[in-house]
Design goal:
The chain has eleven helices and four strands. By secondary structure, it is an alpha+beta fold. The protein has two domains: 73 residues, Glutaredoxin; 127 residues, Up-down Bundle (Glutathione S-transferase Yfyf (Class Pi), Chain A, domain 2). It has a four-stranded mixed β-sheet, with helices on one face. It is globular and about 50 Å long. The protein binds S-Hydroxy-Glutathione (GS8). S-Hydroxy-Glutathione binds next to helix 3.
């Protein structure tokens, strides 16, 4: 069985897949892509979006981080499913994961790519989204209750970017969402998470490099 992951180290989408593979104990070959000069393999495996992450399983490409995570959960069933087994809880987790993808990425990007009022608007959108997620977490250890799962995995990948958002936007996430940080630290206690997430310093270096490259 051959598993290859086409990825970029600082990508929150890639991190989700790395966490899922680690949770399931799947051995795989990691290949770092350069998005300024995509490999022929990436173009061949994801001709539609040309984006990472792509999981190649026995030659078959699977694209889109959430599709990949759900695929991993189905193929490597094991005894700890990532998606809740109850259909309603599964629907609920999927709703919030979709919310993360619709709101958090663009708002977060706005924090480091925009200035002035636009940056303030992005910050507000980012914080508002995190607050809603914090509400969904409530007083539970993890989003689905006592076990780490799909929604935890989809959101924790953003944790590597928190320092960068805070530095670029001059604000404190903890101040606005005090319950989210203990949750993130709890997730980081899992080896699958701590070894899969990008080093926040490397994320910040990446952002500085991008700002320079695009004159932001
Ligand atoms: C997003 C992947 C993505 O944006 C997913 O996998 O969940 N919905 C997709 N990948 C980025 C790198 S991370 O910001 C990417 O590959 N970008 C290349 C490009 O946009 O040209």
């Amino acid at each position: 069985m051959e598993v290859i992951l086409l990825d970029v180290y600082v990508s929150m989408f890639g991190m989700r897949v790395r966490v899922a593979l680690a949770e399931k104990g799947v051995q795989y070959e990691y290949r770092e892509e350069n998005l300024a000069d995509r490999s022929p393999l990436l173009l061949q495996m994801n001709p539609i979006y040309k984006k990472i992450p792509v999981l190649i399983h026995n030659g078959n490409p699977v694209c889109e981080s959430l599709v990949i995570v759900q695929y991993i959960d189905e193929v490597w069933k094991g005894d700890s499913p990532l998606l809740p087994s109850d259909p309603y809880q599964r629907a609920r987790a999927r709703f919030w994961v979709d919310f993360i993808d619709k709101k958090l990425f663009d708002a977060g990007r706005g924090i480091w790519t925009r200035k002035g009022q636009e940056q303030e608007a992005a910050k507000k959108e980012f914080i508002d989204a995190l607050k809603l997620l914090e509400g969904e977490l409530g007083d539970k250890p993890y989003f689905s209750g006592d076990t780490f799962g799909f929604l935890d995995l989809a959101l924790i990948s953003y944790y590597s970017w928190f320092d960068t958002y805070e530095t670029c936007g001059s604000f404190s996430i903890e101040e606005h969402c005090p319950k989210l940080l203990p949750w993130a630290k709890r997730c980081m206690e899992r080896e699958s998470v701590s070894k899969s997430l990008a080093d926040p310093k490397k994320v910040y270096e990446f952002v500085l490099m991008m700002k320079k490259k695009y004159g932001i």
